[in-house]
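Lab notes, practical 5.
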Amino acid sequence: MKKILSILAIMIAVVAQANAQAEFTGFTITTDGYYRAPDGKDYIIYPFEGKSANEIYSLICSNVAKVYYSPQRVMSAVENTSVAIHAFADDILYQKSYLGLKFFYEGTYNLLIEIKDGRVKVNAPSFGMQTGQSETINRTKTAEKILSDFFDKKGRLKENRTIWKPYAEQRINSIYKTLLGIDSTNKTDNDW
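Output from the prediction step:
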């Protein structure tokens, strides 16, 4: 009886594992100011089991409109091969708080998703120059400089940046999740 229960438990675990959708781990900000995958690479391979490149491409293209008001202005694509996004944001990279107000750098960013049958390669985002408003002057910095400023010289997260590093990571990763169709916050009954 114990052997049967053990075999049954193993079979259930194997079936559950096979049916579970892979989790998109997302990118984190490293001390050098770049977004990296958990394994240190500048890309993440995300599986789409049983989907053709055409199906994945169509999914991503249709999801661009969920993130951007004018998808045709920000997206360039090579059919069934890749989708690139070049967009402007005014709230991804935090600058500072002053008298209770939050200031962000604004500038462009680029996302690239490469597509093959059954999987995509999600490349780490890249950024153009970022301009931030201060009380008296404009400041222009590279995104890498802004993001590396989250850390002290010993590579520890600065105390006054503890909420802004996760915020910057979450903003980029949520865009990728929506583009890939795996954003759990957007799951609604779409039977209209």
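Observations recorded by the TA: Confidence is low (pLDDT under 50) at residues 13-20. The beta strands are 28-29, 35-36, 43-47, 75-78, 82-98, 101-116, 119-123, 126-133, 138-141.
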